[in-house]
């Protein structure tokens, strides 16, 4: 493998070298089938085996029982937050949405075109830096579901506990699934795009209560209906077979490395290294309520914002890449998903310390 940089990309993001090497080896020919994995049918038994194993791993990793359907779909997380109201709150039914960062706000915008939307909590006025406890969200009893994002990738804020609403909980976990130890039974519908924690872009994992899927709008074209995807075992049309295969490898890697509990422990430890430095003085700043800070996306600014470009340029010279904050908010962001080694986080911390010494 060629030299690799410390890759803090928010997504598509870093993958473990072991996984990349395995893929590289298998790309000269998968097992003894005489082809690579991207050259065979999604209905071939070799691929069906890969798909089955990926699902079984997800079930073990998240301790899912038979009440849940596990789906692999295309279209990214954006398609999911567009399909959710279409399937479950069409014909102007009521649905509750929390607006707690950029991604949940995008979901609000799409859903408002489809359902009778109520905002059950908004932290927009406070710059998305603090989220009200879920128990205080105002949700109508006739709401079909409540939707929120567990980890807002752009603002670096998360809800660090599981919900207990009277209505079904639909949650975007794109940037935290497999990094936070959740009790899956407390959720009714989870979705996450792959390109942060389990592979290349082009595949999205959905975990949905089977009973809920019976309520999908039957008037939609089949390709937009979750129940049809479930009925066809996520093979309603040709899936992204390569991304599915890589996702399976990532799930195996999680299982070999201690599972979700271990990933959560590592994520807390890695993020704390950066938060400790940020909080140690006035030079770096993070505006998020401490108890809600993301363990995957650490955002920060420099007191003198004129130094930001210099910071990014100097960081690059130390092989610390992709630290620029999202274009909508600016500042810096270090995304430290499960594949990110602690050494890389320490290298960033050391660089930040040196930069502060020189320019602080
Ligand atoms: C929390 C969250 N939700 C949704 C998305 C959108 O995902 P996609 O680009 O796969 O549609 C992202 C992408 O960064 C995200 O971080």
Automatic annotation (TrEMBL):
UniProt pathway: Cofactor biosynthesis; pyridoxine 5'-phosphate biosynthesis; pyridoxine 5'-phosphate from D-erythrose 4-phosphate: step 3/5; Amino-acid biosynthesis; L-serine biosynthesis; L-serine from 3-phospho-D-glycerate: step 2/3
Cofactor: pyridoxal 5'-phosphate
Record-linked Pfam families: Aminotran_5 (PF00266)
Binding note for cofactor: Binds 1 pyridoxal phosphate per subunit.
Keyword Transferase: yes
Superkingdom of the source species: Bacteria
Enzyme class: transferase
Predominant localisation class: cytoplasm
Catalytic reaction(s) noted: 4-(phosphooxy)-L-threonine + 2-oxoglutarate = (R)-3-hydroxy-2-oxo-4-phosphooxybutanoate + L-glutamate; O-phospho-L-serine + 2-oxoglutarate = 3-phosphooxypyruvate + L-glutamate
A GO CC term attached to the entry: cytoplasm
Record InterPro entries: Aminotrans_V_dom, Aminotrans_V_PyrdxlP_BS, Pser_aminoTfrase, PyrdxlP-dep_Trfase, PyrdxlP-dep_Trfase_major, PyrdxlP-dep_Trfase_small
Ligand binding (L-glutamate): 43
Biological processes per GO annotation: L-serine biosynthetic process; pyridoxine biosynthetic process
Subunit: Homodimer.
Protein name (record): Phosphoserine aminotransferase
Protein's organism: SAR86 cluster bacterium
């Amino acid at each position: 493998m060629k030299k690799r940089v410390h890759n803090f990309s928010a997504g598509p993001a870093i993958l473990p070298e072991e996984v990349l090497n395995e893929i590289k080896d298998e790309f000269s020919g998968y097992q003894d089938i005489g082809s690579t994995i991207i050259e065979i049918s999604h209905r071939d038994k070799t691929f069906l085996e890969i798909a089955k194993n990926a699902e079984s791993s997800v079930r073990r990793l998240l301790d899912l029982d038979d009440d849940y359907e596990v789906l692999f779909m295309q279209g990214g997380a954006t398609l999911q937050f567009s399909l959710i109201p279409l399937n479950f709150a069409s014909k102007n039914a009521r649905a509750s949405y929390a607006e707690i960062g950029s991604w949940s706000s995008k979901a609000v915008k799409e859903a408002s075109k489809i359902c009778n939307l109520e905002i059950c909590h908004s932290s927009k006025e406070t710059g998305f830096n603090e989220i009200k406890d879920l128990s205080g969200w105002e949700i109508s009893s006739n709401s079909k579901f409540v939707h929120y994002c567990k980890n807002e990738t752009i603002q670096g804020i998360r809800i660090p506990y599981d919900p207990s609403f009277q209505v079904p909980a639909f949650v975007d976990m794109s940037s935290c699934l497999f990094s936070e130890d959740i009790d899956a039974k407390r959720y009714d519908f989870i979705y996450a795009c792959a390109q942060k924690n389990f592979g290349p872009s082009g595949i999205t994992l959905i975990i949905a209560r089977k009973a809920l899927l019976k309520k999908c709008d039957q008037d939609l074209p089949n390709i937009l209906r979750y129940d049809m995807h479930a009925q066809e075992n996520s093979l309603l049309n040709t899936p992204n077979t390569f991304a599915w295969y890589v996702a399976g490898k990532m799930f195996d890697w999680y299982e070999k490395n201690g599972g979700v509990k271990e990933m959560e422990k590592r994520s807390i430890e890695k993020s704390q290294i950066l938060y400790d430095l940020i909080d140690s003085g006035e030079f770096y700043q993070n505006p998020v309520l401490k108890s809600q800070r993301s363990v995957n996306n650490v955002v920060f600014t420099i007191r003198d914002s004129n130094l930001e470009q210099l910071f990014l340029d100097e960081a690059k010279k130390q092989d610390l890449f992709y630290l620029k904050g999202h274009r909508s908010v600016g500042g810096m962001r270090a995304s430290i998903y499960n594949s990110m080694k602690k050494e890389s986080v320490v290298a960033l911390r050391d660089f930040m310390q040196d930069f502060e010494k020189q320019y602080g």
